[in-house]
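To illustrate the input format used throughout this study, we show a single complete record. The first block contains the structure-token representation of the backbone; no residue identities are included at this stage. The design step must infer an amino acid for every position from geometry alone.
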């Protein structure tokens, strides 16, 4: 088995602290001189390791301030992970949330996605209604892997929305979005206070941290009240 170089060891150990959640987004990692002392190496070795972590999108380096765990983002704003609470507030509207159901359970054995998400642990199943100025804005059905994010089991999601909490506490490295249009059935329509058959935007999203599954969420937005907007330039410009 090929031995790691020293800079690879530094990268893998820092990466492990970040992906495990031990060092959350915004956390300042040790200064260069601290890493040099810890690993008994030259500044060039530390610089090479940090440069690799910057390229991977795991840290950001700020002149004179140090290096910090990054808040990773996908390339396109359309495919960014939305914070519904922040979006509602940015519209100048008051945010509210109602947690409709909360259940700790095993995955459905007939669902390969749920089995993969749970891994060797349980799932935390949450249903919540996001409100804008007291009116339904979005319906959310979310599964969180307690094997990957065990601390979620003790969070009071009546106080903080699941998506807002995850974005602030659990770093992610990969996401998959599926966006579709559908006509609301009676259940969805009743919860969103719209007529059955009303056009809605359905967003399905899965996120990972390294090889660990974090969450799978389905969000439903009435088509008349929500849109996705992005401004971008050609790749590389």
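Output of the design step:
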């Amino acid at each position: 088995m090929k031995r790691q170089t020293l800079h690879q060891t530094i990268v893998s150990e820092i990466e492990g602290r970040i992906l495990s959640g031990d060092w959350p987004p915004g956390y300042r990692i040790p200064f260069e001189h601290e890493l040099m002392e810890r690993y008994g190496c030259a500044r060039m070795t530390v610089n090479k390791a940090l440069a690799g972590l910057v390229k991977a999108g795991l840290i950001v380096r700020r002149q004179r301030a140090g290096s910090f765990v990054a808040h990773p983002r996908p390339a396109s704003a359309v495919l960014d992970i939305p914070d519904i609470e922040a979006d509602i507030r940015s519209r100048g509207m008051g945010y509210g949330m109602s947690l409709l159901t909360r259940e700790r359970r095993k995955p459905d054995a007939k669902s390969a996605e749920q089995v993969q998400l749970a891994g060797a642990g349980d799932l935390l199943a949450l249903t919540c209604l996001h409100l804008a100025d007291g009116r339904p804005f979005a319906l959310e059905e979310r599964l969180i892997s307690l094997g990957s994010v065990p601390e979620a089991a003790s969070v009071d999601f009546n106080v903080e929305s699941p998506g807002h909490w995850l974005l602030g506490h659990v770093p992610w490295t990969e996401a998959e979005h599926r966006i579709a249009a559908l006509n609301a059935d009676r259940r969805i329509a009743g919860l969103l206070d719209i007529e059955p058959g009303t056009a809605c935007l359905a967003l399905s999203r899965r996120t990972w941290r390294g090889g660990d599954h974090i969450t799978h969420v389905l969000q439903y937005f009435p088509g008349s009240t929500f849109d996705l907007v992005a401004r971008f330039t050609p790749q590389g410009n």
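Structural context for interpreting the output: The radius of gyration is 21 Å. Residues 6-19 form the longest helix (14 residues).
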